[in-house]
Specification:
- This protein has 293 residues and is an alpha+beta fold.
- Helices cover 32% and strands 27% of the residues.
- It has 10 helices and 10 strands.
- The strands form 2 sheets. Strands 1, 2, 3, 4, 5 and 6 form a 6-stranded mixed β-sheet that branches.
- The longest helix is centred in the middle third of the chain and has 16 residues.
- It is globular.
- The chain starts with a helix and ends in a 6-residue tail after the last strand.
């Protein structure tokens, strides 16, 4: 059963792209892990995790970006499923399908979003009845970015990713995502980072419009951007192209890269902007993801 078929039957869960509107490295723990402060939103671009009834547990890869994961010995979707089994003692059953539409190792949390979507989908499909707090505990064991992806709603992310709080109320806006199709492993970017730490950002309770949000975010930064450019110079080219798009309010790299984003006043302007970028890049334009409550 394909993801499209699973969608028709309701056994599917979107895994929207996670975008860091800013990312401050605020310190470092004794164990070497960096402490972060970041405002995370989710774009309409998404992978999809589906499930069909089957004996045992298996995973099928599909989608335009699925081939990039074919050599992985243990996908995060399967790890999430096995963790649910270990924690609840349920019988694992289902053919999982991952429709991979987001580029791999690209700074928009594709694997983390996939794992979080699997937790949501299987919690529902296997009728486990786990509350979000329990899912968050399990998510933290799968990776630093997985907890914020569990709700797929805008949030402020701190600590090593496990400290989540409410985001400012976001205005309507559009977003373009662009990746030069060069994978950037997160550990390599952190190792290449130089300099000190950046204070926690001061954020308002809400923004009146996208222009006001962009102005405030311009006072923040992505502390990994310079390191990413040193490892992958095309990131700079992508940022320049985004900044030059008509109506662009802010252009910045997301996460550890190489995906970059641009903010716009509305989704339609963003969709048009994405179409102006080089076809050789991975690109998407539209609005933010509206997670169900």
């Amino acid at each position: 059963m394909t993801v499209l078929a699973a969608r028709a039957g309701g056994a599917a869960e979107p895994a929207p792209a996670k975008v860091n509107l800013y990312l401050h490295v605020t310190g470092r723990r004794a164990d070497g892990y960096h402490l972060l402060d970041s405002l995370v939103v989710f774009a309409g671009a998404a992978d999809v995790v589906g499930m069909a009834p089957a004996e045992g547990l298996s995973l099928h890869l599909a989608g335009a970006e699925g081939a990039a994961l074919a050599a992985e010995p243990d996908n995060l979707v399967l790890r999430a499923a096995r963790l649910l089994v270990d924690e609840t003692g349920c019988t694992p059953a289902g053919q999982l399908t991952l429709e991979k539409n987001l580029p791999v190792a690209s700074g928009i949390g594709g694997g983390s979003a996939d794992a979080a979507a699997a937790l949501r989908l299987l919690n529902r499909s296997w009728m486990l009845g786990l509350q979000e707090g329990r899912l968050l505990d399990m998510a933290a064991r799968l990776g630093a970015d997985v907890p914020v992806c569990v709700s797929a709603r805008a949030a402020r992310m701190e600590g090593v990713g496990e400290v989540l709080s409410a985001a400012p109320r976001l205005p309507a806006c559009g977003m373009v995502l662009a990746n030069p199709r060069v994978p950037l492993p997160t550990p390599s970017v952190f190792r290449a980072r130089q300099g000190g730490f950046t204070p926690r950002a001061n954020l308002p309770e809400a923004w009146a419009d996208a222009a006001a949000m962009a102005r405030d975010l311009a006072a923040c930064r992505n502390d990994l951007q310079e390191a990413a450019i040193s490892l992958c110079p095309p990131v700079s080219t992508v940022l320049e192209a985004l900044a030059a798009l008509p109506g662009c309010l802010l252009a910045r790299m997301s996460g550890s890269g190489a995906t970059c984003f641009a903010l716009f006043a509305d989704a339609e302007t963003a969709r048009k902007g994405a179409g102006m970028l080089p076809e050789a890049w991975w690109r998407w334009g539209g609005g933010l993801y509206d997670a169900p409550l």
